[in-house]
Design a protein that fits this description.
The structure holds three protein chains of three kinds.
Chain A lengths: L14 E5 L7 E7 L2 E11 L12 E7 L7 H17 L9 E10 L4 H16 L7 E8 L5 E3 L3 H6 L2 E8 L7 E8 L1 H26 L1
Parallel strand pairs in A: 4-5
Antiparallel strand pairs in A: 1-2, 2-3, 3-5, 6-7, 6-8, 8-9
Chain B lengths: L20 E2 L1 H4 L25 E5 L7 E7 L2 E12 L10 E8 L14 H14 L11 E11 L3 H18 L8 E9 L2 E4 L3 H4 L4 E8 L4 E9 L3 H36 L17
Parallel strand pairs in B: 5-6
Antiparallel strand pairs in B: 2-3, 3-4, 4-6, 7-8, 7-9, 9-10
Chain C lengths: L21 H11 L1 H10 L15 E5 L7 E7 L2 E12 L10 E7 L15 H16 L9 E3 L3 E13 L4 H14 L6 E4 L4 E4 L16 E9 L2 E4 L3 H5 L3 E8 L9 E8 L5 H20 L5
Parallel strand pairs in C: 4-6
Antiparallel strand pairs in C: 1-2, 2-3, 3-6, 5-6, 7-8, 9-10, 9-11, 11-12
Helix pairs in contact in C: 1-2
The chains are: A alpha+beta, B alpha+beta, C alpha+beta.
Chain lengths: 213, 285, 300
């Protein structure tokens, strides 16, 4: 099955990014996979409430807002996902007893939303000067009922897909920081998705490096 | 279940859902009378018989103390956490006990949501008042004890509350909270002119009044009595006597269960061949 | 200071009293240095509850635990206990899915089950877990929702599956999936008729007249793992999960657990990255577990 707009199965959509778009935030980044756009604002390190204070590291607070609809348990799920992964990537021990608040706002959702959010977070954290262990990038894939693997799917492709996959990789260590795959899929396809995602993550990391300069 | 504000913190289904109406033939069936021809109730009991009690302590190992009580089809589980640090710290001489009573969404015939409603708040207060005279608050001053009672299956709402009182005092004892006595509770209903003990959910529809009585058997004191409906004074006193007798029996069952649990715990921790995993010299306390 | 008067050496501080009972010493160290306590066990290749790192706890299922519900099951995974009860009501089907019913799954972690949870509305973590669980059920449906249709576009059954955790000793997700599958198998519905004239649905109120069972499409088995100090621990207890730096959940269909069969879901959360071979190890262990559960006939 050919994809709309003539993309091949393994091609990502055009990436666009911007940093420093919010002038009140300590750091901000906007990342777009063609139409899917997520804006991320980072506030911190700032003062933390006594009950959330951690003596040896910074506390992370993640807030995710969708562009339509009221918040539901879905946003809580995305928030906990993002928070657990970012906690490992940010050098929280350099800012103990503080709070780093990371806010996401979906501007447009055309599939691969979680990946765009992770990528926007990386740009925003770098813009804020928060120390990171390494830069990171995220990629989404989906597998169609006929077995085709699509990289960076749009919303329509995700809906028709039999399974959806999200991976997060970093620039230094081997291994996926975050994996979320649902829908029935074969293990060999899953392994292929892992490999494709690792390669694509490198591409996005190179793009982010170029965007920094 | 229709609700104007959808609970955003839970997964929701369609906005409105209802229980199906009964079939045409069944709609005309009347409510079964309380007593059948042999002057026995629908489940075979006499008017003054209370349903048999089943007690299990330590049902929630994660809690400091817990108990599971089953009376007929009514199933109540109670967990006690505490004494633990108290945020509110109102009174430095006494501790604080908070009771939360909750009916599971599937406990009654009609599903209820997760949001706490007025009935649950009222019964939480009833439980607190029933347990308060028995607890030695001075033994855990500046600390709070949280009691969580959940009704898993409700066959008679007032009976569930009574089972909740018994379960809560068992759980408090299991947690090692100092108490003056165990509190046992039971219920009675007034149907026509009779005092009927321990009504089930179907029997509750026939009553015109009810009574809930919580009793401390060793001290011979009633910790709480709630009577609703319009009944004569002698009938009410009769009901209280019946309830007190039933509570005394339940009290015996409760103490036996606690003693048995203590014996079992003792025999398990008897030091036999304890493998020393830790060498005292390399880890300082 | 007067010459020649050297100050007397301060007396040595009295050594702290060491408890002589080894069990009490172990309990104290577990509370004060939980990570070191667990590391000692893992260095010896075993876990504090004497399990091997790749072993799961025993799963026990008690079907039809709640009589007021149309279907129910109680699942014990070690000491973690989850009760699932399903109640059926009737509603109008969704406009875009007029020929199927609803399955609404709510996993609740009340303050009863663990000291970590506070009373009040569910915490963010509990909501996230409930959503993850509901997501698994939606992407790998256990029952065919088309069978819940009473009259197309007019009436359908809504199954409210409420899961209550009664004791949280880690890995509530696995126990919840098992409880839900067993509860769905035990569901008995009455025959429902839709009356076109007044738009009402009628069904027998007799609890013994419930002939309809639900056809089961698949039997998902969830297998969760925790990564603690580079050790992969299957089915973590609450203490182990608190020290975990990453967690993995693999969902496998117990009826189709061969290596060539599809997996239902893989989720890896948390910080420590896992490589492909490590994920493959989790998947292999999960398949073994699914086969064991299936052959034990627990979810039959």
């Amino acid at each position: 099955m050919t994809r709309t707009s003539g993309r091949s199965n393994g091609t990502m959509r055009p990436l666009r990014s911007a940093k420093g778009v919010l002038n009140r935030a300590d750091g901000s980044g906007r990342f777009a996979h063609d139409k899917t756009t997520v804006l991320c604002g980072v506030y911190g390190p700032v003062e933390v409430k006594l009950r959330d204070e951690q003596l040896d590291k910074a506390t992370l607070e993640v807030i995710f807002k969708q562009n339509i609809g009221l918040t539901s348990t879905r946003e809580k799920f995305l928030e906990s996902f993002l928070k657990e992964t970012l906690e490992a990537l940010i050098m929280t021990n350099l800012h103990p007893r503080t709070l780093i608040q990371i806010t996401f706002q979906t501007l447009q959702n055309d599939g691969s939303l979680l990946s765009a959010a992770f990528n926007a977070a990386c740009m925003a954290l770098m813009n804020a000067g928060i120390p990171l262990h390494s830069t990171f990038a995220s990629v989404s894939l989906c597998i169609l009922p006929n077995g085709d693997i699509f990289l960076d799917p749009t919303a329509d492709e995700e809906e028709q897909a039999e399974s959806r996959h999200v991976f997060v990789f970093d620039s230094r260590r081997e291994g996926a920081y975050c994996v979320h795959s649902d829908g029935p899929f074969l293990q060999e396809k899953f392994d292929k998705c892992y490999d494709y995602a690792a390669l694509s993550a490198k591409v996005i990391l190179d793009y982010m490096k170029a965007a920094r300069e | 279940m229709a609700s104007a504000n959808i609970d955003r913190k839970r997964i929701n289904g369609p906005e409105v859902s209802v229980i199906p109406l009964p079939l045409q033939g069944e709609a005309s069936a009347e409510q079964a009378p309380l007593l059948n021809q042999d002057a026995k109730r629908q489940d075979g009991r006499n008017v003054e018989t209370v349903r048999p009690f089943f007690i299990k302590t330590g049902a929630v190992p994660a809690a400091d103390g817990s108990a599971f009580v089953e009376q007929g089809n009514t199933k109540v589980i109670c967990a006690v956490y505490g004494p633990r640090p108290d945020r509110k710290l109102t009174d430095t001489d006494r501790g604080r006990v908070t009771v939360e009573f909750r009916l599971a969404p599937f406990a009654q015939a009609k599903r209820r949501g997760f949001v706490k409603d007025v009935v649950e708040k009222e019964y939480s207060q009833v439980l607190e008042d029933a347990l308060a005279p028995a607890i030695v608050f001075e033994s855990f001053s500046k600390a709070a004890v949280d009691v969580f009672v959940t009704v898993l299956e409700d066959d008679g709402t007032l009976a569930s509350v009574a089972a909740g009182v018994s379960a809560a005092s068992l759980a408090l004892a299991d947690a090692g909270i100092e108490m003056y006595d165990l509190v046992a509770a039971c219920t009675a209903g007034f149907v026509e002119d009779m005092v009927v003990m321990d009504l089930t959910a179907t029997e509750e529809k026939l009553r015109k009044g009810s009574m809930l009585l919580a009793y401390m058997s060793s001290l011979n004191q009633v910790s709480q009595v709630i009577q609703t409906g319009s009944v004569g004074a002698t009938t009410a006193e009769e009901a209280m006597d019946f309830c007190i007798d039933a509570c005394a029996e339940i009290h015996t069952l409760m103490s036996e269960a606690l003693v048995a649990a203590a014996h079992e715990a003792q025999s398990q921790t008897a030091p036999t061949n304890n493998v020393a995993v830790v060498d005292d010299d390399d880890m300082e306390l | 200071m007067a010459p020649g008067n050297t100050p007397a050496p301060a007396p040595a501080p009295a050594p702290a009293p060491q408890p002589t009972d080894p069990a009490a010493a172990a309990a104290a160290i577990k509370k004060l240095h939980p990570r070191a306590y667990l590391a000692r066990f893992l260095a010896a290749g075993v876990r504090p509850d004497a399990r091997q790192p790749s072993h799961f706890r025993t799963l026990r299922i008690t079907p039809s635990a709640v009589s007021t519900a149309h279907g129910s099951a109680l699942a014990h995974l070690g000491q973690t206990t989850v009760l699932c009860a399903i109640k059926a009501e009737v509603a109008v089907p969704a406009l875009d899915k007029p020929d199927r019913g609803f399955l609404v799954v709510n996993l609740d972690l009340p303050p009863l089950c663990s000291g970590k949870h506070r009373p009040g509305p569910p915490a963010a973590e509990a909501q996230a877990l409930a959503h993850q669980f509901a997501g698994y059920v939606e992407s790998a449906p256990i029952v065919d929702l088309a069978k819940l249709c009473i009259a197309e576009r007019s009436a359908c059954w809504v199954l409210y599956a409420d899961l209550l955790c009664l004791n949280d000793d880690g890995n509530v997700l696995d126990a919840a999936v098992a409880a839900l599958v067993a509860a769905l198998r035990s569901v008995r519905l009455p025959r429902a008729e839709y009356d076109d004239d007044d738009g009402a649905v009628r069904a027998s109120t007799d609890a013994t007249n419930r002939p309809i069972t639900l056809p089961i499409l698949r039997t998902p088995v969830a297998c969760s793992f925790a990564v603690v100090d580079n050790h992969l621990l299957a089915d973590p207890t609450a203490d182990e999960a608190a020290l975990a730096s990453a967690s993995v959940t693999v969902l496998v269909d117990a009826d189709r657990s061969a290596d060539s069969d599809p997996l239902l879901a893989v989720t890896k959360r948390g910080g420590t990255p896992l490589s492909k071979p490590q994920l493959a190890q989790c998947i292999a262990l999960a398949r073994n577990r699914a086969r064991a559960v299936s052959s034990a006939g627990l979810l039959a």
